[in-house]
């Protein structure tokens, strides 16, 4: 939504939307000349302008609502696609993706319908702009011809009124259309401001209760599930947003993203977090999670030089290495985002056993869309309110 705002506003930035307002003084001068030369003839461009204003005001609310709907539906579609990109393709059943694709299709349908409405309004606006001058010309000729036949106006005056009336009507209709032209930029600005204000208003405040809760002994295993008001990703954001930044041990909380990046350099240094004393523990964790079987295939074993992407390890190996790195050194809490990504079914079973084995000592929070992983972690607590949980109320 924020990214689309500049594109919606570029028409205003180049001055095209405001051009009609700059011409407004000339339309007043033209109307004054028509009234001086033809008297009642001035009613034709004024009537065209009045009808245009009424027409534009009647479609403006519908256009505004469609623009807002188009922006919201587009944002929902992009968020859904982003969430789908973090879903493991080799462990997720097609049945579990049905609701996701249904929401994406619905969002795209809403966006298309809203776009159709805005396009219809734009076409109506363009038609009225093009036909306004013609209608005004016909009206001026009709009223002016009667005045000429009655001897109240010369043919030269009628010609001048015809030219001026056409120009005045075009400018007056353009002024009326300015409001519709500016609506996309205005709506984008309002939506962007609302997003920014929401982010500022939800600024996290460190809590002593949170700190004390993280420092308590013992572990636990929690699964994030979608509710009517929150998706698992939103719950994960809520948990991370409530974590304090003033912990005595900054390594107490560790987060493993869906697509982790590793430390460049020796594999063992990466797993042990550059601590020689933790190498034995890292080796043990590596065997538990199944990483040891993959490392044995490398020419230099644990002395292999890694890139940040985890190469020469496979994607699944890099994911396991990130999990081992997170659990090395006895952290207070480990948060796993989409741990099923890049892992096959066998690796998921090993991961389930690994998490259950360490849940007595480490607080583990899992955000996953894998039905297999959920079934293996049946003993895990389902989180309903992450804010209350992180404050120690659940």
Automatic annotation (TrEMBL):
Main location class: membrane
Entry keywords, A to Z: ATP-binding, Membrane, Nucleotide-binding, Transmembrane, Transmembrane helix
Localization per record: Cell membrane
Keyword ATP-binding in record: yes
Membrane topology term: Multi-pass membrane protein
Listed GO MF terms: ATP binding
InterPro entries: ABC1_TM_sf, P-loop_NTPase
Signal peptide residue numbers: none
Transmembrane segments: 28-57
GO CC terms in record: plasma membrane
Key word Ribonucleoprotein present: no
Designated name of the protein: Type I secretion system ATP-binding protein PrsD
Species this chain originates from: Falsiruegeria mediterranea M17
């Amino acid at each position: 939504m924020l990214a689309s705002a500049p594109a919606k506003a570029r028409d205003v930035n180049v001055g095209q939307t405001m051009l009609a307002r700059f011409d407004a003084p000339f339309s007043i001068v033209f109307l004054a000349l028509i009234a001086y030369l033809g008297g009642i003839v001035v009613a034709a461009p004024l009537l065209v302008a009045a009808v245009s204003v009424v027409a534009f005001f009647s479609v403006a609310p519908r256009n505004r609502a469609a623009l807002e709907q188009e922006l919201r539906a587009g944002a929902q579609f992009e968020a859904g696609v982003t969430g789908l990109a973090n879903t493991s393709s080799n462990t997720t059943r097609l049945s579990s993706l049905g609701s996701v694709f249904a929401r994406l299709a619905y969002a795209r349908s809403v966006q298309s319908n809203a776009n159709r409405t805005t396009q219809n309004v734009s076409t109506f606006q363009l038609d009225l702009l093009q036909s306004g001058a013609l209608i005004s010309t016909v009206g001026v000729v009709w009223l002016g011809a009667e005045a000429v036949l009655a001897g109240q106006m010369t043919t030269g005056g009628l010609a001048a009124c015809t030219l001026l009336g056409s120009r005045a009507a075009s400018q007056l209709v353009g002024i009326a259309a300015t409001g519709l032209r500016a609506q996309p930029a205005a709506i984008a600005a309002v939506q962007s401001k609302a997003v920014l204000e929401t982010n500022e208003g939800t600024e996290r405040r460190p809590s002593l209760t949170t700190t004390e809760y993280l420092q308590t002994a013992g572990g636990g295993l929690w699964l994030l599930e979608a509710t009517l008001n929150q998706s698992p990703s939103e719950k994960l954001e809520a948990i991370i947003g409530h974590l304090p930044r003033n912990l005595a041990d900054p390594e107490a909380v560790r987060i493993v993203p869906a697509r982790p990046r590793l430390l460049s350099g020796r594999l063992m240094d990466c797993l042990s977090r550059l601590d020689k004393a933790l190498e034995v523990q890292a080796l043990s964790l590596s065997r538990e999670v199944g990483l040891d079987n993959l490392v044995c295939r490398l020419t230099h074993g644990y002395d292999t030089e890694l890139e940040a992407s985890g190469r020469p390890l496979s994607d699944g190996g890099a994911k396991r290495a990130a999990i081992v790195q997170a659990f090395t050194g006895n952290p207070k809490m480990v948060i796993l985002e989409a741990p099923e990504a890049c892992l096959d079914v066998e690796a998921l079973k090993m991961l389930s056993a690994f998490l259950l084995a360490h849940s007595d000592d480490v607080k583990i929070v899992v955000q996953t869309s894998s039905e297999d992983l959920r079934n293996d972690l049946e003993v895990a607590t389902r989180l309903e309110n992450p804010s209350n949980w992180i404050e120690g109320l659940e």
